Amino acid sequence: MTLIVFFRIILKKLKWLVIFPALLAGMVTYFTRNLTKEYQSSATIYTGLASGYSITDDGTEKVDYFKVNNAFDNLITTVKARETIEEVCLKLLAQHLLLKAPDPNILDVKGFEDLHSLLSDEDIAQMIVPGNFDKTVKKLYQIKDSSNKNVVQNLLTSSASPYATTKILANVTVVRKSTSDMLEIGYKTNDAGVCVNTLRFLIESFSSRYKDIKGSETTNVVKYFEDQMKLAFNNLQGSENRLRDFGVNNKIINYYEQAKFVAESKEDLSTDYYKEKMSFEGAQTAIKRIEEKMNSYTDFVSANEVLVKLRTDLANVNYKIENAKIFKYGADKIAEMQDQADNIKLQLKEKAREYYDFNNTIEWVPQNSLLNEWLAKVVELEESKGRLMVYDQRLRQYDGIYKEFAPLGSTINRLEREVGVQEKEYLSVLHGLNLAKLRQQSLEMSNTLKVVDHPYFPLQPLPSKRAMLILVSFMAGFILLLAYYIGSAMMNNSIQSPDKVEKIIGLPLLSALPDRKNNDDREVQVHEMQSSLMQQIINTVFIDLKKIDPLAKSYTIIIFSTKGDEGKSFFAELLVNKLSRIRNKVLYLYPDSSGDHGKNLEPENPKLLTFSYQVNDGIIDYHGIKDFIRQNENISTDLSEVSYNVLEIPRLNKYPIPANLVEQAHYSIMVVHAAKSWTSADQFLLKTYLKLTAGKISVLLNHVVPDLLESIYGEIPKKRSYFRRKIKEALGGEQY
């Protein structure tokens, strides 16, 4: 749809586009004459959700705007929650029920009367506790929860009740002020006292509910960590007790120090043992070498039982001394054994001197020196032998200690590891508990909503919306009606304009004629347009016929339509009038099935011959024009001077087609009504006709709105205001 068409619709329907919205605005004006005044109050609350201080904030935490927006959404949802509004309704109802007379600061006269018209005195007496607001609210809750249907439930749900939750919620507005921490809550109603008290109850109710909701978030978490901490502490104590009992039962003070001491003692003992072993081996080798050098000294020693006995005694005494030293016997005991050893040594020396004669060896070594050396090595050998026996015994004891300590170490490691795991678990739970309590404290600090601007008592009502409602109703009426007209035009599937003929029908357009009967624009000169368009049609038909057969003396033109009331008789009469002025005579044949013929024919035109014929099944087999004339035996005429035979045939959807004559026709003109739809049935009938005709066929579009003929006519001849001319120029229209 073009802008020109759009404005044409407006101009064409301008009368109704003004009358209908005006009537609608008048109705709104009448029905809003007693429009109730409304009062509005608001309050501003600081939430601290975005910039408020938190215990957990160390100064590096960035603002999470998504989290802040989510927190504000939760807060606004809490304000508008069903139970919050319900609590406000019950508190408001309790406040009003306790009134004995209207109070401008609480409930005006009309509201007081409406309340007492809803409830009887008996109902009110059952619902209140005189003089006690809190108990009255509690009693209202009890009545509400007592059953699904009761007087309080009716007041909260009935659309006629001023205490309905839906009504109060509809008048509550909750918005965040820009990007600040402020929340603005507004409420409007027809009573100033109810307005301000509703806001007060709303702030009180949602603040309490929001604090409980936020507090419950951490209460369960803290309780969970406290229970887990008790369990972890008991497990830790059990593990420590098992470690303690294991140490007591196995006489372990410090396993690692004791194990270190045992290892070091054994290492020292092993070192001493190997040193003593070397001394023993050295003394034994030396004695063997000395005895080899002594001449007959071995026989002397072997024979000397006393000396052997002394050696044995000395070895036993040395063994006892070394054993006493290792096991740390008393000093007196060791000294006594040492004296005994010294005595045995003196006895050995005395016995040795008795054999002083054996001063030299076979290598000429003095016997005395060799004997002294031999005695010294013997003593050393026996002492070493005693010490080695003690070392062996002690090393075997250390093997037993190792066998005892080895399994104790793995058990202690397992118990200590268990204690470590339990301790870490305990510390982890303790850390979680500390964080939960810190979070709880932080929420308790941040949950306190502070009222910056308290609800005020509205002294003046809001400006009336009556003028706005009237204007909106007028605009709505105008837009709705215009949309209806535009929608009707867009949904109209009729051909309407000449531009659509070839696209919809598939045949070339001959021309079009304006609609004379349904022309709303009285300024359009329809007769002038019709005359010009008919001249165009004659020019086109004459040129086309000359191209078809320039030497023909007579041409046959058939005018037809697929259905009735297309205007083909009107067009045929205009056509024969024009053709009769060209040359010779024109024969016009029309069916007697159509009425009102001859109204548009030129009277007493000698060149125009008109005949009606009877429509019957026989015309389908007529071979020429004479067959139509012969129906009337009383009529005879000479057709030799006829230049144009114009045959109007009845509509195709009801009557037979003169097939032979259609086949012989030079030119066929199909008349189509512009305001009617072109259907598949019309297309089917046209295909049947096209199977017969061999001449040219075109479409004459009839009953076209004059304004839609600009594409073939040009500027429509009518008077236009200066304003309309300028609009058309701006929209791309032509001017003359």
Please describe the structure with a list of short key phrases separated by commas or semicolons.
single chain, 736 residues, alpha/beta, Rossmann fold, seven-stranded parallel β-sheet, 11 strands, elongated
The poorly predicted ranges are 357-364
- SS-based class: alpha/beta
Task: Output the radius of gyration.
Answer: 66 Å
Shape assignment: elongated
- How is the biggest beta sheet arranged? 7 strands, parallel
CATH architecture label of the domain at 496-730: 3-Layer(aba) Sandwich
Question: N- to C-terminal separation?
Answer: 24 Å
Report mean pLDDT, rounded to a whole number.
80
Q: What do we call the CATH topology of the domain at 496-730?
A: Rossmann fold
- What name goes with the CATH superfamily of the domain at 496-730? P-loop containing nucleotide triphosphate hydrolases
Beta-strand portion reads: 5-15%
Number of helices: 24
Q: Could you give the order of strands across the largest sheet? A: 5-11-10-6-9-7-8
Helix content: 55-70%
> How many runs of DSSP E, i.e. beta strands?
11
